[in-house]
């Protein structure tokens, strides 16, 4: 996505997408459906195991 992160989250929600925020806590992270500190945890959030 491009542009302002908060705007991107708004567009994604309107399209029916779920948001996963990767990184330290921030305003954008508070609006996401899930928040992880590191991308290595992504499979825990989406329910897939490797």
From TrEMBL:
Pfam families: Hydrolase_like. InterPro entries: HAD-like_sf, HAD_sf. This is Uncharacterized protein.
